Structure formats: structure tokens, C-alpha cells
Amino acid sequence: MRAWRSSRRCSTSTRLACQRPKYLAGDFISFADLTHFPYTYYFMKTPHASVLDSYPHVKAWWESLVARPAAKKLSTYMVW
């Protein structure tokens, strides 16, 4: 019984995770994403960047954001 409840909880959280929007405020990039870009960019340059491995949704958000051509162009102007 306990294992069944645990597996049900996992499947529910997985299903909910798949239904999340791609970006912070929905399916399109917004000011919320743009506001977090510089902070996350600099954080990813630190030795602590591996923390994002524990947060797959945040990591997926970041990877989809930096894959955009505009983000690549913007990152060339950011000084580390």
C-alpha cells in the first residue's frame, strides 16, 4: 500500500511537471525571464552551477533560454 501511494505521488508530480509552461510566465519569453537572465548567467559561471542539476525544471528553463539567438548575442556583452 505504501509503495502504491509513493508511486502515485511520483506519477502525479511527473504529470504536473510536464504541464508546466516553458518560460516563467507562460509559453512565451517575458520580462520575468529577462529579469532573471543576468543573475542566472553569472550564477552559472560560478562553481555552484551544478546546483541546477537538482532542479530539472529550472535547468530546462535556463537551457531553453540560452539556446535562443538573442540570449547568445546578449551573453557576448556580459562581462565575467
Show the helix and strand layout.
Layout: H1 2-18, H2 31-44, H3 56-66, H4 69-76
Question: Low-confidence stretches at least 5 residues in length (pLDDT < 50)?
Answer: none
Residues in helices, as a percent range: 55-70%
Classify the beta-strand content into a percent band: under 5%
Mean pLDDT: 82
Q: How many distinct helices?
A: 4
CATH class: Mainly Alpha
How many domain units? 1
Count of β-strands: 0
Structural class: mainly alpha
Largest pleated sheet:
none
Q: If you compute it from the alpha carbons, what radius of gyration comes out, rounded to the nearest whole angstrom?
A: 16 Å
Q: Order of helices and strands, N to C?
A: HHHH
CATH topology: Glutathione S-transferase Yfyf (Class Pi), Chain A, domain 2
Protein name: glutathione transferase
Domain GST C-terminal: 1-80
Pfam families: GST_C
EC number: 2.5.1.18
Keywords, please?
single chain, 80 residues, mainly alpha, Glutathione S-transferase Yfyf (Class Pi), Chain A, domain 2, 0% strand, globular, glutathione binding, Glutathione-S-Trfase_C-like, transferase, EC 2.5.1.18, GST_C
Quick overview:
The protein has 80 residues and is mostly helical. The protein has helices at 2-18, 31-44, 56-66, 69-76. The chain contains four helices and no strands.
Describe the model.
One of its GO terms (cellular component) is cytoplasm. This is glutathione transferase. It catalyses: RX + glutathione = an S-substituted glutathione + a halide anion + H(+). The chain is mainly α. The protein has a single domain, classed as Up-down Bundle (Glutathione S-transferase Yfyf (Class Pi), Chain A, domain 2). It is 62% helix and 0% strand. It is built from 4 helices and no strands. The longest helix has 17 residues, at 2-18. The protein starts with a helix and ends with a helix. The mean pLDDT is 82.
